[in-house]
Amino acid sequence: MNPQQRATALIADDEDAMRAQLRTRLRDVWPALEIVAEAANGIEAVALAGQHQPDIVFLDIRMPGLSGIEAARMLFNRCHLVFVTAYDQYAIEAFEQGALDYVLKPAGGERLKTTCDRLQARLGKQPANIEQQLTALLRGQHGGKAASQPDYLRWIQAVVGNSLRMISTREVLFFQADEKYTRVQTRQSEVLIRKTLKELADELDPDEFWRIHRATLVRVDAIEEVTRDLRGRQMVRVRNFPELLEVSRGHAHLFQQM
C-alpha cells in the first residue's frame, strides 16, 4: 500500500494523554492515516470498531470493561491489531489474538514508523502467519531471550497539568500510598498517580522493589542504610534523600541483621 493512500484507525487507551500522544506521533509518521474514533476502554473499542469499521485498531492492554486482549478476541478477524502497552509480558498472548505488532510505551517515532510500514504492507491482504510473526518480533524486541522469562513494569505514567510524564522505574526511589493516590518519588521530583500500591507491588520486579510497609515500596538499590529511632523502629535512609521511611514490624524480616 502507498503510504499516502487512505487508511482508517481507532485508538483505544484509558488514558486521555496517552491517546493524544499516540495520535500526534501517528500523524508524524503516517499523515494520511485517519483516526476515525477513540475509545477509553475495551467495551467502547469493540462498539466503535463495529460502527466505524476501521482498518487498524491500536489497543492498550490494561483497560477497564474489557482488556485489550479480550477486545482483540472480538476484533481479530475484522481489522489489523496493534498493541501499544507498557507491559511486554503479554507479547505471546497478543499474537495469539492476531496482533500484527506490539509496541512498548512510550512509542518512539522510529519504532512506530516501523509498525506503520508493516501495516501499510499488510492492508488489503490476509493476516500473516501468527506463529512466524511472534517468533520474529520477540527475537527483535527481547534480544533472543526466552519468552518465559518474566517482564515487569518499566514505565510509570503520570499526568502533570495538561501533559503526560513518562517516568522510568529506574528513576524511582520509592512509592508511598497517599489517600486516593500513590506518591512517586524520584531524586528530582514527586508526582501523584492513581494506581494503587497493591497494583504496583504486583507489577514491579520484587528483586528491585521491596515492600517495607503497607504504605511504602522502596527501590532496593536506593537504600543507603537502615537505622533504629528512639522508639526502636527500623528506619530506611534512601541515598541522597533526606526523608526516612519506616519499616513496619511485618516487614522487619527484610533486614534480619538488625
Topology of helices and strands:
Blueprint: E1 7-12, H1 16-29, E2 33-39, H2 42-52, E3 56-59, H3 68-75, E4 80-85, H4 91-96, E5 99-104, H5 109-122, H6 130-142, E6 155-160, E7 163-168, E8 172-178, E9 181-186, E10 190-193, H7 197-203, E11 209-213, E12 216-219, E13 223-228, E14 234-238, E15 244-246
Parallel strand pairs: 1-2, 1-3, 3-4, 4-5
Antiparallel strand pairs: 6-7, 8-9, 8-12, 9-10, 11-12, 13-14, 14-15
Modified residues (4-aspartylphosphate): 60
InterPro entries: CheY-like_superfamily (IPR011006), LytTR_DNA-bd_dom (IPR007492), Sig_transdc_resp-reg_receiver (IPR001789), WalR-like (IPR039420)
Protein name: Response regulator transcription factor
Describe it for me?
- By secondary structure, the protein is α/β, with parallel strands linked by helices.
- It folds into 2 domains: 7-142, Response regulator (Rossmann fold, 3-Layer(aba) Sandwich); 155-255, LytTr DNA-binding domain (OB fold (Dihydrolipoamide Acetyltransferase, E2P), Beta Barrel), CATH 2.40.50.
- It contains 7 helices and 15 strands.
- It is elongated, with a radius of gyration of 21 Å.
- Residues 156-258 form the HTH LytTR-type domain.
- Keywords: DNA-binding, Phosphoprotein.
- InterPro entries: CheY-like_superfamily (IPR011006), LytTR_DNA-bd_dom (IPR007492), Sig_transdc_resp-reg_receiver (IPR001789), WalR-like (IPR039420).
- This is Response regulator transcription factor.
